[in-house]
Amino acid sequence: MALLPRHALEEALRRYWQAHKPQLARCPPHAQAPCLESYADSDTARRWSPTWAGLSRACRYHGYELAPTQGEQLAWRDDVERVIGALAPMTRS
């Protein structure tokens, strides 16, 4: 459940940087995120990092950890949709 939304989030950020600052598009996502606050609106920047971190944690799920709850998964899905929706129009500028 977490791999595809995380990939969509990373791809939206890569496309955003490709349109605004191409050299950042080649950096890993965790390095791109702090720069987002300087370029995108603050709500999108604040939402991107914890959503990506939660999805990344869920992708590396270990047997001794609790699996993400359905509520967490739905919240991540909603956040991914919001972030992608906010970044998509900015890639056309």
Secondary-structure map:
Layout: H1 3-20, H2 22-25, H3 29-39, H4 42-59, H5 70-91
Helix pairs in contact: 1-3, 1-4, 1-5, 3-4, 4-5
Describe the protein.
There is one protein chain. With 93 residues, this protein is mainly α. The protein has one domain (3-91). Helix content is 78%, strand content 0%. The protein has helices at residues 3-20, 22-25, 29-39, 42-59, 70-91. The radius of gyration is 13 Å and the shape is globular. The N and C termini lie far apart (32 Å). The model has no long low-confidence stretch (mean pLDDT 89).
Short description:
The chain has 5 helices and no strands. With 93 residues, the protein is mainly α.
Task: Specify the overall morphology.
Answer: globular
Into how many domains do the coordinates divide? 1
pLDDT averaged residue by residue: 89
Number of helices: 5
